[in-house]
Amino acid sequence: MFRVLLDNLRRIAAALLLLIAVPCVVEVALRVQRCRQKVVHASSMTTELVQPHRQTLFEAPPHFKQTLIEEETGIEFELRLNSFGLRSNTEVTVPRPAELTRVLVLGDDAIFGAELPVTSTLPSILQEMLQQRSQLPIEVLNGSMPRGCPTLSLLQLQHRFAALQPQLIILHVDFSDLADEEAIVRYVRHDNDGHAVAAMHPSLGLKSNASRELDAEFLALQWLREGLSREWLSSLPDGQSPLGRRTDFAAWNDVDSPESQVALQQMLQSIIDLHQLANRLSAELIVTTAPSAWQLAAMLEKMDATNSSMETLSPAAAQQLANILHETCRTNGIRLIDRNLFIPPNHRPGPFLTLCSPGRYSAAGHRLTPNPLTPP
Questions:
Q1: pLDDT at 330 over 80
Q2: Is 204 exposed, middle or buried (0-12, 13-18, 19+ CB in 10 A)?
C-alpha cells in the first residue's frame, strides 16, 4: 500500500513539474524569439507598429526595432522608434536646447513611411531642406503613426509630445482620415465643452492593475491574449472590425451620412483644438493636405493606366471636403498648405506611389511633399 501511495505521489509530482515546465519553456521561447532579429517585408508591419493605449487609443511602441526590406529596391533597413515612439534612430533631448528649432510632424501612415528607410521619409527630407537654409540647428521629428488622424494627433500632443517643446507643429490631413475618425468616435471622451481629452482602447477597459502588470511581465500571457484576439477577429463577418472602420472610399464618398458627419465634426474640432493647444505651447500649427496615395492611383486610372480596378473618390466629394477644410482653417486663422496645388500639371503620379504597398507613398512621393513647406 505504501508503494502505491509513493507511485501516486511521484505521478502527481511529475504532473506538477510538467505544468510548471511547459509555461516556462513557452516563456523562454517567446523571449528568445522577441530578441532574435528578424527580417520581414515592410508591408507586413502595419499592425505591429501600434499598440493599445489607455489615453490615446493607440501609440507607437517605444524602443521598437525591426529589420525590414524595402520592397522596391530589396535593400534591408532598420526601422526604429525611440523612447517617445518617434520614428527616429536617435533619442530626443528634453528639455529642448535653446539654440535648437524643433519641428514636430503629425499624421498617419503616409508620413510615417514604414515601407522606407527613415532618411527617405518626409520629416527627414524636410529637416535636410530647412537646414540648408539656416545657420542654426533644426530638428524635424516624425510623430506620425499608422492609423493616425487629427483627433489621435491631438491626444498624442496632449499626453505625450508636449514635453518635446516643439516650436512648429505640422499636421498632415488627407482623405483617409475621415474613415479613421469614424472608427474611433465611440471611444473618444470629451470635456463639457466638447473637446477631446482621452480615448481608451477597448481591449484595455476591463483590465485591472494586476492583470496589466502580469501582461507586461509575461510574454506567454500576451501570446495567449493575442491568439484569442485573432480567433475572435477571424470569427467576425467579412468587412467588420472591432473599431468598425469603413474603407476610405466608402467614408469619403458618403460625406452626408450621419456617421460621416459626426466623424467630420470631430476631425475639424480636433484641428481647431490642435491650433489652440499649439498656441498654449508657444508653437505655430500648419495644416497640410495632399492627395492620398489611392487618389493618385485613381488619377493614374483616369490617365488610362492599367490599374482599372482601383476604387475612386468621387470628384464632388473630394472638392466638398477640400472646401470644408479650407474654410475651417481660414475661419480659425490656421495656416493651410494644400499640396494638391503643387503637383506639376499633367504630371503622371505613378512615381509617387509604392509598387508593392497600395496606399503608400514611394520615396519620390516623400521627396515631393516637403517642397511647399520650405521657404524660398
A1: yes
A2: middle
Residue 350 pLDDT > 80, yes or no?
no
Answer yes or no: is pLDDT of 240 > 60: no
Q: 42: closest CA among 117, 129, 138?
A: 117
- % of residues, the chain, pLDDT over 90: 41
Residue 233 pLDDT greater than 70, yes or no? no
